Amino acid sequence: MKKWLPLFAACLGTLMLLIDVTIVNVALPDIATDLHAGLSSLQWVVDGYALALAALLLVLGSLADRVGAKRAYLAGLVLFALASLGCGIADTSSNLIAARILQGIGGAAMFATTLSLLHSTYTGRDRGIAFGVWGAVSGAAAGVGVVLGGVLTEALSWRWIFFVNLPIAVLAIALTASVFPASVRRADRAVDVPGMLAFATAATALTYGVIRGGEHGWSDGRAVAALILGAVAVVVFAVVESRSAAPMFPLTLLRNRDFGATLLGASGQTFAAFASTPLVSLWLQQQLQMTPLHAGLALLPIAATAFLVAGVFGRLMHDAPPKWTIGAGLVVVGIGTGLLTIVDAGSSWAALVPGFVVIGAGIGINAPALVSVGMAAVPPQQGGTAAGAVNTARQLGLALGVAVLGTVFRGVADADQPMTLPHFVAGLDAAFTVAAAVGIVFGLIAFTLFHRQRPVVESGSVKQTVVAAPRRCRSA
User: Fold this and answer.
1) Angstrom distances, CA of residue 340 to CA of 272, 279, 294, 432
2) CB contact at 8 A, 373 and 321
3) CATH number of the domain that residue 108 is part of
4) Are residues 179 and 301 in the same domain?
């Protein structure tokens, strides 16, 4: 069993960083009460982490190649542990948000290196087993997060959703230092710092602008300035990447419509399926007076159904065209989110179950194909970049989704006034409607972008169906 210790070390870090995407959701009401945090601050508690992951994942992958994946993973674990301590002892919402951003930086370093470490440690059948276990752990993280968050918040306090990371991180650091061999360092690998700064500025400014505009109005000077800055940063990012000798994200990849469709599927999935979760948690606990544990259990059907569908039908879907797995799967997610609009002022938590089950089924169809299809759509030497871009799109979809849906909720529910149940539910249903529209529209666009089968042609006396191979873009 000693040979599986590196896998255990990699899975510990992965489980920690992915759990922290969702573990905070059921603790938001307690955080709001304890730190006197408003809706915009709660949005940033979620988005600070997701934005750091999205902004730094690709560039830290390049940095890891330069300094060695083992060193980068260890540094990420140490930073993640220190930031978790900072989250746990935070006495203001601003301090908590700052610590969450640091957590996201550490998480990005870990997320960017685990697969590289496993690839260099295992070969043959063992490598396949290692990747399979890592994938299962990644898939289970969302469900574990909401339940664990509920247990810790109810039994101890919200601070323990962060303190629990400390012993796990210590174990992961000790194992990583001892069981992984030294990683190969590529000192000639360039790190695209200008691209990283432009991308981080664009993502952060746009998110801040949306949240600020929802809170203070769209004529607010800071909101307008942030949105303009975000738009300018997008243009700067495009210029920098098109001229860089070693771009963080080669823009030529976007010429491949299969890859573009995969990015739409990844960002649309997290927006449609998960961006409304903080609002749902507030409804369950503040309006329905559920405990954090019961709220976590109420959110569990999404992850449980996704895990079941992916496990039972995964082999059948392996050879299915991506327009059905990614495109149609995302449409199913959108339909499920649309079913959540049946929630009204007299609803209990059970009203969420049908929609959650459909959302989970869509994720079970959509999620397993995202990275594999994205990597297959590009040249092999750009496979790592493609995988990182898909994971970046997921986190960016979540961050922007939380910002947009929080703004929609605020506008309909009038969150600045004393909140009544009918007002809260009206805002919640509006957020569900927007999330459902994003899922369905993004899914339909992805469906049409993926290659279709070419017409049946005759070859001698045998009919053959020619399937279009993914286009290969020129290497940047």
Assistant:
1) 11, 12, 18, 7
2) no
3) 1.20.1250.20
4) no
Q: What does the pLDDT read at residue 165?
A: 94
**115-173 pLDDT per residue, tens:** 888 888 888 888 778 877 887 787 778 778 888 998 999 989 999 999 999 999 999 99
Judgement on whether residues 204 and 185 belong to the same structural domain of the protein: no
- Rounded to two decimals, the pTM is 0.85
Please identify, among 191, 206, 228, the residue that sits at the C-terminal boundary of a domain. 191
Residue 229 has, within 13 A of its CA and on its CB side, a CA count of 19
Quick one: which of 53, 55, 61 has its CA closest to 80?
Answer: 53
Angle between helices 5-22 and 114-121 (to 10 degrees): 160
- DSSP, collapsed to helix, strand or coil, labels residue 38 as coil
- Does the pLDDT of residue 370 top 60, yes or no? yes
* Tokens read off for 4: 């599986």
Res. 62: pLDDT tops 70: yes
pLDDT band at 473 (very low <50, low <70, confident <90, very high): very low
DSSP designation for 27 = G
Q: Does residue 70 have a pLDDT over 50?
A: yes
For residues 53 and 63, state if they share a domain: yes
Contact predicate 405/279, CB 8 Å: yes
Query: Are 122 and 207 contained in the same domain?
Result: no
Average pLDDT, the chain: 85
- CA-to-CA dists, residue 398 to 23, 45, 117, 193, angstroms: 14, 13, 27, 24
Count up the domains in the chain and report the number: 3
Of 167, 191, 215, which marks where a domain is finished?
Answer: 191
Domain that holds residue 146: 1-191
211 and 298 in one domain? no
Same domain, 204 and 214: yes
Are 418 and 337 contained in the same domain? yes
pLDDT reported for residue 174: 93
**One-letter amino acid for residue 326 of the chain:** I
Q: What is the DSSP letter of 455?
A: E
Provide the pLDDT for residue 464: 37
Q: Rounded to 10 degrees, what is the CA torsion of 269, 275, 280, 286?
A: 170
* Largest Cα–Cα separation, the chain: 77
- For residues 272 and 435, the answer to whether their CB atoms sit within 8 Å is yes
381 neighbors 250 (Cβ within 8 angstroms): no
Same domain, 418 and 459: yes
Q: What angle do CA 398, 370, 55 make, to 5 degrees?
A: 40
Q: What is the phi-psi region of residue 289: left when phi exceeds 0, alpha when psi lies from -120 to 50, beta otherwise?
A: left
